[in-house]
Amino acid sequence: MDVILKSDVKGLGKKSEKVSVSDGYARNFLFPRGLAAEATAQTLSEMKNKQSSEQFKAEEELKAAKQSAEKINNNTVVLKAKGGANGKLFGSVTAKEIAVVVSNQFKVSVDKRKITVDDIKAFGTYNAQVRLHPKVTASFKVQVVEE
Length: 147
Hints:
This protein has two domains: 62 residues, Ribosomal Protein L9, domain 1, CATH 3.40.5.10; 80 residues, Roll (Ribosomal Protein L9, domain 2), CATH 3.10.430. The protein contains three helices and nine strands. Strand 8 and strand 9 form a beta hairpin. The longest helix has 32 residues. The model has no long low-confidence stretch (mean pLDDT 92).
């Protein structure tokens, strides 16, 4: 019997795959647990439609990430911070502060966990990167100036 898996099944296959199993295995194990559905023309059509919509959504997300990266790439973000007379900051500049300034300046939503930057504990200019998508990374500079 051909079935379409609704979730990953160890030793059988991944979600949305069409696999052949014995009738008893399908009726007694897969169907009652909601792990699979019978591979009819309707379920195959639904699976193809779902896959094409997921692919379209992924392409749109990638396109949006590339547009955001174009706005951010090779630009400079200016942060104001308090510091001492010797050029050191009181504390440090965090990724959260950088994310807020990037979001305000470029009108791009940025997650603080996606920003990669060295520890900023003194005034100056630093290189930073933000991962907008698994395939898209934008580089920019962070300039820390005295308040």
